[in-house]
Write a structure and sequence with these properties.
Blueprint: H1 2-21, H2 33-37, E1 46-49, E2 57-61, E3 71-77, H3 93-100, E4 105-109, H4 123-133, H5 135-142, E5 144-154, H6 156-165, E6 186-190, H7 200-207, H8 211-216, E7 275-281, H9 289-301, E8 306-311, H10 325-338
Parallel strand pairs: 3-4, 3-5, 5-6, 6-7, 7-8
Antiparallel strand pairs: 1-2, 2-4
């Protein structure tokens, strides 16, 4: 017994000494939106309205110096949980400046959020589609190369960018169907979600329990005013809801739409034949790296080219912060896409 007690004391003393010998852990100081807003902000060369609502505008950024060749285009999509009280296009202007310094044009789209008149389904998605396709009307005037358009979306803007890549697969019966959507060469999603069905609970933690139902329900739903209405259908490991697509548990919330994810979730529109990069900060508390890995694996199984990268010492906002190594990874991905 005395020997055992002595061993315990020795082990405790050794552990304590080892702990004292370890240097204090250095934790990263992660960026917040106000830090992004403090970075140098680019000014749009033009602001183009495509509707009457203040959110229905596009900001066009052009490089100061250019040659005679057509300009590659970065289709930029802001995030902000689809909520108007969070920063939108303004949060992406620092990144726009970094892109134009590379000789690229930037087509930064706005859209109505779920708490704005006409937002939600189908308005938010129709806005994004209209703003993207409007690029065709202005390409000739500004010398933009429609053969080299790559989407860059942050957070839920990454979701919309991935959705835009799959618009050609939206069923003809859907309100979101477009006969000839603008083709994309690639999508770089930074901190975005590719599967709304599977990661609905994760999105609810970041954006609140009402955001996703408000985004996906069709306007005119009698339950729209009920604050606690939320999907109660758990997702299966493969991404399908319990009972499969069209499960009756979804119908009371989504006004009879058999599957509200069929024309809104990027994962439901695969394959797109558009290459995808999913970039996530290792400390991203909104869309953690496994979110990107899941979508990349899903896209590859469907036959698409998809990659996932993890940015060290980065959270949710460093990926849109020029000067940070995480943003340099996004730049490199766009460089490859626009060559």
């Amino acid at each position: 017994m005395r020997a055992s007690a002595a061993l315990v004391l020795l082990a405790s003393a050794t552990a304590a000494a080892a702990q004292e010998a370890l240097p204090p852990q250095q934790l990263p100081r992660l960026m917040e939106p106000r830090a992004i807003m403090s970075l140098p902000q680019a000014r749009p060369a033009r602001t183009i309205a495509y509707g009457t609502h203040p959110s229905q505008v596009v900001e066009l950024f052009l490089p100061q110096r250019r040659g005679e060749e057509l300009l590659p285009v970065v289709l930029m999509v802001h995030g902000g949980c689809f909520l108007s009280n969070l920063p939108g296009r303004e949060l992406m202007r620092a990144a726009a400046g970094a892109f134009t310094s590379r000789g690229w044009a930037v087509w930064s789209i706005g859209y109505r959020r779920v708490d704005e008149e006409g937002g939600g389904y189908p308005g938010t998605f129709q806005d994004a589609a209209a703003a993207i396709d409007l690029l065709r009307d202005h390409a000739g005037e500004h010398g933009l190369d429609l053969q080299r358009v790559a989407a860059f979306g942050h957070s839920v803007g990454g979701t919309l960018a991935l959705w835009a890549a799959g618009r050609a697969n939206i069923p003809a019966a859907s309100q979101l169907h477009t006969a000839d959507p603008l083709p994309l060469r690639a999508v770089v999603s930074v901190g975005g979600f590719g599967d709304l069905r599977t990661f609905g609970p994760t999105i609810a933690i970041a954006c609140g329990p009402r955001m996703l139902p408000d985004l996906l329900r069709e306007r005119g739903d009698a339950r729209a005013a009920e604050p606690d209405a939320a999907p109660d259908t758990p997702a299966q490991p493969g991404g399908e809801p319990a009972g499969g697509a069209g499960d009756a548990g979804l119908q009371p919330l989504f006004a009879g739409r058999a599957d509200p994810f069929a024309d809104t979730s990027p994962a439901a529109l695969l394959p797109t034949r558009v290459s995808v990069v999913m970039l996530h900060g290792v400390y991203d508390h909104v869309a953690f790296p496994a979110v990107g890995l899941f979508h990349a694996q899903t896209a590859r199984r469907a036959g698409d080219r998809a990659e996932v990268f993890v940015a060290p010492n980065a959270g949710h906002f460093e990926v849109i912060a020029p000067g940070h190594s995480a943003f340099a990874q996004a730049l490199a991905a766009l460089e490859r896409a626009l060559q």
